[in-house]
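WARN no homologs supplied; continuing
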Amino acid sequence: MLPQKLIVICTRNFANHTCNGKLQSPLMKTVLSGYNSYFPKIIDQSLEKVSFVYTPAMRERIKKCSEYYTIGRNPVQGEFMVLAYEALNKDSMIDDEMIHKLQVIVTTVEMVQTYFFFWDDLEDKSMTRLGKPCWHLLEDTGLFAFTDACIMRSFINDIIRQNFHGEMCANILSVYDKVYFTSSVGQYMEAAISRSRNYNNYTMESYTKIGNLRSSFYSVKSPLLLGLALNNKLNKESYDVVDDVGLDIGVLVQCHNDLIDYFSEKGTLNIGKSGTDIQEGKFSWVATTFLENCNSEQKRIFAENYGSADPDKVKRIIELYEEVNVAQHYQLEQQKRFDIFNEKVSKLPKNATPSAEFFKSFQNLLHYYSQDTTNLMYDKH
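OK structure emitted
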């Protein structure tokens, strides 16, 4: 198991209260601590404004879809977004209207995660997620989950249009559109390599390229871009800064999730979703790391056993991972990704937006989640 290290975040105006070992500013506490209370209210208020959803049954289904994986989950991306917004908003007053807008973004960015869960669980034929049956396994769902996901995506955009206008609305929707596009392309490319069963294609170079699409933009870059959009500071220059600096630590999120899946299959961590990467032969960071550090005999055994649901074969793969100590390789991976991140930050010009100072604070928050496998960044997708 990795060291359970908590690193304190240092940003402006932090109060003396903590949340899971992290210091939070008054604004972050206001927006994040009330998440489970205001989320359903925003859903209800938004549904009331959608006139064509006129039957109580349809309204109830959309509400149930929106809340199923979202209520009770730690809104990590919302946390990243609020951190970015506050760091970029040092001179402006934050009134009730702005707090509401922040709550809307936290609500919708977490709904995007639920949207991806619907698709991912269908593709993986998963049984449980967050300690409950997967959405598509509910009695009245099945393949309707595809339609539910499409409705969810459109509803997210409608909530944004109800609460934002003009350039700010356009910029926020543009970020979400990029999330849908890049993540879907990355998901397809990962699946294509996985299904090929050509383990020569399991390279860290390919993993990084696909991870940037599948995970990096959504998990790290998009919350920062949303913070910029809310401050009317999203432009080509600020976009390029986030796109470049956020790449490797964004890929680290996917590495972390893949490691969690392995610990789940190994039986040393309960994440509320059974690990399935080994059974499905996934092009994961764990499998790629193994293949780049094994000998020819270990690779032969891997090829004979990977991608099978046979418990004995799954057990043999776990034994192979233990032989090369993938957990230790994760620590090296984390250090490498953060070294690249820090080098990019050090080269930022003094007037960069976001600034080097912001990225250093953001690094501490990412360390909190990526250092300890009990601090789950996201349930795997």
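The first helix runs from residue 26 to 33.
OK
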